[in-house]
Amino acid sequence: xxxxxxxxxxxxxxxxxxxxxxxxxxxxxxxxxxxxxxxxxxxxxxxxxxxxxxxxxxxxxxxxxxxxxxxxxxxxxxxxxxxxxxxxxxxxxxxxxxxxxxxxxxxxxxxxxxxxxxxxxxxxxxxxxxxxxxxxxxxxxxxxxxxxxxxxxxxxxxxxxxxxxxxxxxxxxxxxxxxxxxxxxxxxxxxxxxxxxxxxxxxxxxxxxxxxxxxxxxxxxxxxxxxxxxxxxxxxxxxxxxxxxxxxxxxxxxxxxxxxxxxxxxxxxxxxxxxxxxxxxxxxxxxxxxxxxxxxxxxxxxxxxxxxxxxxxxxxxxxxxxxxxxxxxxxxxxxxxxxxxxxxxxxxxxxxxxxxxxxxx
Length: 361
What we know:
The structure is a single chain. This protein has one domain (2-299): Distorted Sandwich (Beta-galactosidase, Chain A, domain 5). By secondary structure, it is an alpha+beta fold. It contains five helices and 21 strands. The strands form two sheets. Strands 1, 2, 3, 4, 5, 10, 12, 15, 18, 19 and 20 form an eleven-stranded antiparallel β-sheet that branches. It has a ten-stranded antiparallel β-sheet with strand order 6-7-8-9-21-17-16-11-14-13, covered by helices on one side. It is globular and about 45 Å long. The longest helix is centred in the C-terminal third of the chain and has 21 residues, at 316-336. The chain has helices at 234-237, 285-292, 316-336, 338-350, 352-360, and strands at residues 2-8, 11-19, 22-27, 33-39, 67-72, 88-91, 97-100, 109-117, 122-131, 137-147, 152-156, 170-172, 183-185, 189-193, 201-205, 211-216, 219-225, 240-244, 249-254, 258-260, 265-276.
């Protein structure tokens, strides 16, 4: 991972972190907030309020945009503590960078975002809240990403064997209308479309699938997270949530609720991947499956089934990211060395055995 200090959108002393073709920018003037996410030479995937670019030292909570850490459940006072103070950035021994905010006077909570490289073209984003107050608190770490308008959020529903009890739920906020045309309810996914004139609305799912995504133009932004079956989640059991209004869409994941005694801390991890995809309308389950290259696996099984030995293959987001990354790598290789590719092709025609060996490798 490459790390350098830059000025970004008027904020000085920002930290840019690059891993392969994916790079993110974190401001140290406010937050902690991630204010930039770029795939290659593409545009910023994150929404920022243009009127607030480069500003800081606001006395009230300010919606700058980008990605932030909160603690759930949402409260009109506790959640909206000002976060316009400078953030301390420090490189970690294991290759990451920590961004720590000052202790919140009202709540006694200290918020930290740790960023690590995770494979190729991916980052691990750790959301850490620590109780430095005088009393126990119940809270969950909460990662909220504001994304540019015009895209579609993909929320996977729980999949599994048929049973006699329910295994999935959809939660609506008081201002959300279930008949809103921005919601598309499939058997495998719930889609939320971001529209320019949309009124505020919010939805949450008890998704155990461990991923969610936002497709905008030709880019897929994918978040993965770990789900804990036996733990209680905020907001009627929501592990993923989407809030949207006219200007942006928030793609949110939550950790389970925990009792934090003074000095305790809890961490919720997201794994970010950005990948190039073919632009297409998303109106049903089949569209999502085709776009992300997800293989349907409706047959599942008891604890002895062999599919439990292949957790990596059960992650649609990982499969989609690998597919897109492989496509991007092939495209880049062809662009850099087109002549060599043509020569290899001609050689392969003369030597079928060599071509087969290379393909197997």
